[in-house]
Amino acid sequence: MRMRRKRNLEPRLEACSDILAARGVPMKDLKKAAEEYRALFDYSELFGNGNAVRLEIGCGNGGFVLEAARREPDINFLAVEIISNVIVTAMERIKKEDVKNVRFLNVPAEVLPCFIPEKSVERIYLNFSTPLPGSTHARQRLTSPRFLVIYRELLKEGGTIVQKTDSEDFFDYSIEQFLLNGFAVEEVTRDLHNSDAAKDNIVTEYERQFAGQGKPIFRLVARLNRMEGSE
Q1: Are 51 and 76 a contacting pair, CB within 8 Å?
Q2: What torsion do the CA atoms of 60, 66, 68, 73 make, to the nearest 10 degrees?
Q3: Separation of alpha carbons 34 and 29, rounded Å
Q4: Strands 218-224 and 155-165, how do they pair?
Q5: Domains of the chain and CATH, by start
Q6: Are the C-beta atoms of 231 and 174 separated by less than 8 Å?
Q7: Res 221 pLDDT > 80
Q8: Other C-beta atoms within 10 Å of 60: how many?
Q9: DSSP-based three-state secondary structure for 62
């Protein structure tokens, strides 16, 4: 079912322009844009400080990044969401709560290198990304090799990706791809809510829904290991 466009969407987005750091695509060819277009953030200008930066890809309505930013006010958060109809809700939540350490990108993940400097992110969160089952759409999964190349570019040495999902098939696929693409996989749990990691876990909207249906929640941490010969 197609999402109905929110009323007054453009004025509402404009009202959040102070925390909307990037919107749209710089050119139609996303691959070419990612390789050629650069409008890199100066974090000191964007956030007004030199604190460490973390990135959530697919922030949805903003529940996770709001709580994460509250818990760690000395960390800067970039929240990415491709759907304008969705990101506007996340931005309005952040503004209503007067949270100062979050900025948003209303862009596809393919063009993140256009805006985010190389080796500048200490952690990436992938919370309940669409599993896209079957082989037809494998390249679109956010843990497919073409996206892992992007994450490797953005992450600092030893940086981490924290993934949560309710799909065991997607989880197993992700583990395989991380290991094949220069990441060590740590802290693997196949039942998050009954593990030691549950203590500090931020429960997202989807997570609450899936757990309420009795589904186990899968979680891992993938740590970047620079491949031999890379800088």
Answers
A1: yes
A2: 140
A3: 9
A4: antiparallel
A5: 25-224 (3.40.50.150)
A6: no
A7: yes
A8: 20
A9: coil
